[in-house]
Amino acid sequence: MKAALNNSLIILTILISFSSCNDESSNPDVIQLLINSSAEAGSQKPNKWYASSGSYLTEWSGDHSFSGSKSLMISSDNDVGNFAYWSQSVLTDIPYNRRLRLSCIIKLDNVDPNSDGVSIAIRGDGADGKSVFFYTTQGDMTIRGDEDWEEYSIEMKSAIPESVNSLIVFLILLNDTYGTVYFDDIILETIN
């Protein structure tokens, strides 16, 4: 009996070792570029995250979170208004000639089903501050309605050119949309 248990433990250890070899997070070629991706760090506001509220409410929320105790929230109680977003910029160690994937976990609370809803986006700017590339879920993926925590992602189609000086991630409640959205576990990582 003891020998069978030891053999079972050895087999389980081997299986765990093989499965962890396929995990992208253990892949040294995959680089996570955002700081405070779970929105947990900060005192009055979340470290490294900037909010632009337009006519909507942006809040570092402790009401809902996928992991930890905080998330980034945007809310509007009517369907007329400018979009609002949370953003983070990457200004150093840009992985040129690599593609990126932006993914995050999103919770939707009564986001207007007749609106453009929610979007996530990656932008690369040149030294002049003008956009070199812009990838967004808007128009390609519907993110609206009521939904518990769900992962969404977008991938760049081409590699980052060396003319890019900064990368910016946007988490957006789009124009003329009512409802509340929460963002958590925001990951910007290299792929391929």
Main features:
about 40% strand; mainly beta; single chain; globular; 1 helix; Jelly Rolls; five-stranded antiparallel sheet; about 190 residues
Q: Can you give a write-up of this model?
A:
With 192 residues, the chain is mostly beta strands. It has a single domain, classed as Jelly Rolls (Sandwich). The chain is 10% helix and 42% strand. It has one helix and ten strands, in the order H-E-E-E-E-E-E-E-E-E-E. It has one helix at 2-21; strands spanning 50-52, 57-61, 71-76, 84-90, 99-111, 118-125, 131-136, 145-155, 166-173, 179-191. The strands form two sheets. The protein has a five-stranded antiparallel sheet with strand order 1-4-9-6-7, with no helix packed on it. Strands 2-3-10-5-8 form a five-stranded antiparallel sheet, with no helix packed on it. A hairpin with a 5-residue loop joins strand 6 and strand 7 (131-136). It starts with a helix and ends with a strand.
CATH topological fold name:
Jelly Rolls
- C-alpha Rg (nearest Å): 19 Å
What CATH architecture label applies?
Sandwich
Number of structural units classed as domains: 1
CATH superfamily: Galactose-binding domain-like
Give the N-to-C terminal Cα separation: 46 Å
* CATH class placement: Mainly Beta
SSE topology string: HEEEEEEEEEE
Count of runs of 4 or more consecutive helical residues:
1
- Give the helix/strand class: mainly beta
Which shape, going by the Cα principal axes? globular
